[in-house]
Design a protein that fits this description.
The protein is an alpha+beta fold. 39% of the residues lie in helices and 16% in strands. The protein is globular, with a radius of gyration of 26 Å. The N terminus is likely disordered.
Length: 645
């Protein structure tokens, strides 16, 4: 069970950079949660249930002592556990947080210590000596504890191997032997978040809980799932989650089946998804972002089990993992529990270099245009979609540049009254904005804007309107009030750090990963005081020119621009279906009777395996909570309001 949505720039559902705009991140998290739930509600015969994100907000769930033994008991770890009574002072809390930064473990070396004062987070970055795995321990007073493992998983093609693997690792493991460990686990869990995400260049596995024993139960199951999955030794998992040929009678036509294959057929029938996919492919012709990590249904059947298994061996080694902890739990126990899994592996010097994300150079001497079809039904209007897309940078931006772009994005696209958004929306050329403006969650940032519902003869007018509007803004600038409003909005969002119903540690992890995954500091990504002060000084000195220069440099003078037009087609779906049928017919024509018998046998065996109940012995491997693990004390949260001096 996992989040099976594959996100492609420039208009992702989830993960907008998180470097500065925490509230925007929460908006995208909520959108992704809705998408996950909609996937989970689909018929098992069409997709199987493949999405999960569970939240609870019962404040009575305070963390209970960690019951498992990892070298030291919970009672002996008071120096590194952050547990505060209702009468504890701010000095007491700071002292405990500072002590948590000093915790060491014989299996790890300390790489760096840092305090992100903006969010009251005391951080220690460790490296596992035996494997090279990096572990970021964030000590806070938040009882909603978060754990995550992220692997850098850049695909070289559109077979969807990262996405299929994300599904497959959650289908049982060496220690937890049921077919769906998390289904069993949830029957006795108090988790506040449980999900997995496939990015274009990485895969994240995240859990959260306020109950300490539950938290470590979840960590154990997840860690064993990613490092020791059943899937790499059982081809039936790849067949079930990825793709397989299905045949019940020799005279029947062959068909493709598979969870990800079926899911991505749905994604590729969505006009918005197709527009995003084509935009990414055009902007990144030479790098991993030009292919689809979620999988193209036309290419997914090219993925063999051997390639699937090799991908796990190459990218899921601890050396290529970034491990994250956040909350008030015991720091030594964090290190100990992960060492139990990491110590089973040796070094893998090639894993991390092999997963390095390459930069896409700006290679277009002049802007490009492309046209692609999208499917429409017989009764739908034949309206076009178009999007103007820029690749903003082909070298790293400074923290100041990134923050300045966040403010500029709000000025241009942040609200219905923002200058670019308002002009495009009120032009009458279309009926809905497409393109999310700035997208900076990957190695390189993009900017995208366009319209849906465009008449065929007005597509060129949309591109002209976007460029002319940006030109006008670059010449006339923004008013002082507009700049102050956007700056105040972004600053308030950063300081408030309101993640809604989602764990703050989740926002923290995704924010740090926007830099950490590219071998940069995980903590610098969350600091905003210095660049904010610098930007305010620049605005005080130069005013609107700060943003006008940015528009000229990164947009108007940037020829690595692609305008993608999506053309409606009432015959596309039928053509695609026929192409698939012809492909399968050609495959069947090459098969002998023995080959067909083998496919029929495999079809029967897979269905029998799916229908087979887990044994009591396998079920017994899944940890669960008992009544004694629950606290009888109701958690108390301070509600006093204090004014800053």
């Amino acid at each position: 069970i996992s989040d099976t949505i594959s996100f492609s720039p420039p208009t992702n559902l989830l993960r907008r950079g998180l470097k500065y705009n925490i509230v925007t991140m929460v908006k995208y998290l909520r959108m992704a949660l809705v998408a996950c739930i909609s996937l989970a509600m689909r018929s098992p015969s069409g997709m199987l249930i493949t999405a999960l994100s569970v939240q609870r907000t019962n404040s009575a769930r305070a963390a209970s002592p960690f019951a498992r033994s990892f070298g030291r008991s919970a009672s002996s770890c008071s120096a590194s556990a952050i547990k505060m009574s209702s009468t504890a002072t701010a000095e007491d809390l700071q002292s405990k947080l500072e002590a948590a930064m000093e915790v060491t473990h014989p299996s790890y070396e300390v790489v760096n210590k840092d305090i992100v004062s903006e969010y009251g987070s005391y951080c220690t970055l460790y490296r596992h000596k035996q494997t090279g795995a990096e572990l970021l321990s964030v000590a806070t007073d938040d009882d909603n504890k978060v754990f995550g493992i992220t692997f850098r998983t850049p695909p070289s093609d559109s077979t969807g191997v990262p996405h299929i693997l994300e599904h497959s690792v959650l289908c049982g493991s060496k220690k937890y032997k049921t077919k769906d460990p998390f289904v069993r686990l949830l029957q006795g869990s108090l988790n506040t978040f449980l999900n997995a995400f496939t990015y274009p260049d990485r895969t994240c596995y995240v859990v959260a809980s306020q109950n300490t024993k539950d938290f470590y139960n979840l960590i154990n199951v997840y860690a064993d799932a990613v490092y020791n999955p059943r899937a790499i030794n059982d081809p039936s998992v790849h067949a079930q989650e990825g793709w397989h040929l299905e045949l019940e009678k020799k005279e029947d036509p062959l068909v493709y089946k598979g969870v990800v294959f079926n899911e991505m057929k749905g994604v590729y029938s969505s006009p918005d998804s197709l527009l995003n996919r084509e935009s990414s492919r055009c902007l990144y012709p030479d790098t991993t972002y030009g292919v689809d990590s979620g999988g193209d249904p036309n290419v997914i059947p090219d993925l063999s089990f051997e390639q699937f298994r090799d991908f796990h061996g190459k990218f899921y080694h601890p050396a290529n993992s970034r491990i994250f902890f956040s909350g008030d739990d015991d720091v030594y126990s964090r290190l100990e529990i992960m060492d139990e899994y990491l110590k089973e592996f040796g070094e893998s010097p090639e894993s991390k270099p092999a997963s390095k994300i390459e930069w896409q150079k700006k290679i277009y001497g002049e802007p490009r245009r492309e046209r692609h079809p999208y499917p429409v039904g017989g009764g739908q209007p034949e309206l076009h979609m178009t999007s103007v897309n820029w690749l903003l940078n082909d070298e790293p931006m400074t923290s100041l540049e990134e923050l300045t772009w966040s403010i500029l994005d709000h000025l241009l696209m942040g609200t219905p009254s923002s200058s670019l958004y308002k002009t495009v929306m009120e032009s009458g050329l279309g009926n809905q904005i497409t393109g999310g403006g700035l997208s900076d969650e990957l190695l390189q940032a993009t900017f995208s804007v366009g319209l849906k519902g465009v008449q065929p003869g007005q597509v060129d007018d949309v591109e002209k309107l976007v460029v002319d509007t940006l030109t006008k803004i670059s010449e006339e600038g923004f008013t002082e009030d507009a700049i102050a409003s956007s700056l105040n909005t972004i600053e308030f969002q950063m300081r408030e750090f309101n993640t809604g119903g989602f764990p703050k540690g989740l926002a923290w992890m995704l924010g740090s990963m926007s830099q950490w995954i590219y071998d940069n500091s995980p903590t610098e990504a969350l600091k905003f005081e210095k660049p904010l002060a610098e930007l305010k000084e620049m605005i005080a000195t130069s005013g609107s020119k700060v943003f006008q220069d940015l528009i000229k440099k990164y947009l108007l003078e940037n020829t690595h621009r692609v305008t993608v037009e999506m053309v409606p087609s009432k015959t596309l779906e039928a053509e695609q279906l026929k192409d698939e049928e012809d492909r399968l017919a050609a495959i069947k024509a090459t098969l002998s009777d023995e080959d067909l018998d083998d496919i029929i046998k495999s079809t029967i065996e897979l269905k029998e395996k799916q229908a087979k109940e887990d044994t009591p012995e396998d079920i017994a491997t899944i940890p669960s909570l008992i009544l004694e693990d629950l606290t009888r004390e109701q958690a108390e949260y301070p509600i006093e309001v204090e004014e800053n001096a």
